[in-house]
Design a protein that fits this description.
With about 180 residues, the protein is of the alpha/beta class. It is built from 6 helices and 7 strands. Strands 3-2-1-4-5-7-6 form a 7-stranded mixed sheet, sandwiched between helices. The radius of gyration is 15 Å and the shape is globular. It starts with 6 loop residues before the first helix and ends with a strand.
């Protein structure tokens, strides 16, 4: 991901996300993803954990959520919220690319509003390709990018192809 932001900038972003989530709850977008109980999901660029926390409830106790972000406060916020809400299926990862997860271990990867800010896009896409199960998909949304640019960026390296275009997200599958 991009250069780690200051703690103050991160706190401001968290405040903005609370407002966003009030008017557009994460569940509204996650309904398009068709998450099933027992899934293993990576929330890449999780920020304060809006999608991680909601997804945790959808996968249930048999599922696992990995919340990855470059900023150390992200992990702290996600852990705090998970403990406060009694969610035991969330693990945090602080990284800008490498996940440390096994090959072909994720059913779904969520990548929302972070791609535009990545420093090494190819390395991230290669890592996501590596950990995604053959039948899994990358659920993508980045409101900073136009549709044509999203399709070009996610498919140009031959790692992913568009599987499905939803109302608010794109599902990319492994090639």
């Amino acid at each position: 991901m991009g250069q780690s932001q200051s703690n103050l900038d991160f706190e401001f972003m968290c405040f903005w996300y609370k407002l966003r989530d009030f008017f557009s709850p994460p569940l509204n977008i996650l309904k398009e993803v068709n998450i099933k109980p027992g899934y293993n999901i990576l929330d890449f660029g999780c920020g304060p954990g809006s999608y991680s926390i909601t997804t945790s409830r959808l996968v249930g106790e048999k599922g696992k959520i990995y919340a990855l972000d470059i900023h150390p406060l992200a992990a702290k916020k996600v852990k705090y919220t998970a403990v406060k809400e009694g969610l035991h299926n969330i693990e945090t990862i602080q990284s800008d690319c490498k996940t440390g997860l096994p090959d072909s271990s994720m059913d779904i990867i969520l990548m929302y509003d972070v791609y535009h800010d990545l420093n090494n896009k190819l390395a991230v896409l290669e890592e996501l390709h590596r950990i995604l199960k053959p039948e899994g998909f990358l659920s993508f949304n980045d409101h900073h990018m136009k549709r044509e640019y999203i399709l070009l960026e996610l498919t140009k390296e031959g790692l992913f192809k568009l599987g499905k275009e939803n109302k608010k997200t794109y599902d990319f599958v492994k090639i």
